[in-house]
Fold these 2 entries.
Entry 1:
Amino acid sequence: MRPYTAILIIPTGVGAAIGGYAGDAIPVARTLAQVCDRLITHPNVLNGASLYWNIPNAFYVEGYGLDKFAAGDWGLRPVRNNKVGLLLDQGIEPDLLLRHLQAADAARATLGLTITDYVITDAPLNVELRTSASGASWGTIGNPDSLLRGAEKLMQKTGAEAIAVVARFPDDMDEDAVQNYLQGKGVDTIAGAEAVISHLLVRHLQIPCAHSPGLASAPPYPDLSPRSAAEELGYTFLPSVLVGLSRAPQFIVEKQLFTSCHDDIWADQIDAAIVPAKACGSSALLSLSQSRCQIITVRDNQTQIKVPAQPLGIKSIQVNSYLEAVGVLVALKAGINPHALVNNQ
């Protein structure tokens, strides 16, 4: 019998009550991974700044790559170990640059990761932050060509098979938005811009990529929410990105050019997708809704965006919590109709 495979999607930068902070959806991923054979998810779920958790049967797939995978355009090929290249924004000041290089050294020495040499972009990336009318965060890159040139150089110079990029983010962020985030409410103001950077790299390079923001250190915040606290543990968010990329599956971008492997994963093998109930408008979910994949929507995970499944014509099983979603997955994996477990009298 083939492996039971699920996708956990929590969109970036939309203020998700669970998964909208510093790796606070990792407990959800760890639990779901116990009841399915393969769990596919993305950096927003698994990145916890200096904190991370190795989930052996979880696959770390960047958002653009996840969209292409769900559409059936790309496949996923599991790996044991990637050579991870480090791409650093020229706009990062020397002390902060050194902190990131030391974090990479620590991951190499302490965790045994294969991290190649680093490359500094030939111009500052000049990231700017934006907020949409819905309240979701996004951003722009002033020098995207410099980003791409640096990434290509990493691949050519070091043989990097995955790329961790650190861009210097502005210090003049919306103070109210930052305070709300630190108190465990509101939207992560930098998450949307991070997605723009990683999407561009994966679209252009077609290898695993993920972003870690370069931010100036700040004094301790006394009323810090536990959901945001992982970001206050060190000088860089790089460790979780390096760990995730070290085992991120490679993309199969042209099936006919690759010799098929038993472990390759394609969209038609996805059994279930779990998403917040009001965040059903992603490209990945729209693609999966056209397949045999069972969509499970979670009401408790509120978001700033309001895009439910029903108006989009997406058939789903709606549950109240991720705990309830676990029960649905167990029933589906066992070949049992979940409605048979509910008293409908």
Entry 2:
Amino acid sequence: MILTDRDILDAINDGSVLIEPAPPEEFYAPNGVDLRLDRRLSLYREPEPGEDPVIDPAGPGYSFREAIARMAGEIDIGADGFVLAPGRLVLGWTLERVDLRPGARLAARVEGKSSLARIGLIVHLTAPTIHAGSTGQIQLEIINLGPRPIRLRAGMKVCQLILEQTLGVPRRGYGGQFAGQRATG
């Protein structure tokens, strides 16, 4: 069951979910709440001469965090924004920290905004699920699939959080490789 704007506000008021900083009233839609883009982005770089460009996620000793650290560097989005070229992928984070309290029977999805998708901006490739018990800023896989460059600005509305009630309480909260993810710096 998807929560309405009233249900989301009730969940915030009773402590089942925390969204910090608190979104203003105009960020709420009938079935979700807008989240904004943080000032930090991780930019992928071209392989260095002689560096093996192949990523082997099923290989022995593979670590997502180590792979990203080798391939990407972080920047702050400046006052003029960051221009995302067509076909380019960057990692971003929501400005807001979202905590789905253990035992609250809530999970969530992060979905793109249709107004941005219609110009080619996608905010998640395959990872919309925010598991019950998750806490932290939400990492976004942002790609420009459109024909023109798109300027990203810190603080812009970039996605929607859709909250859903789970049928039960999980045995344990989310503890996978993205637990407590947050923008560094």
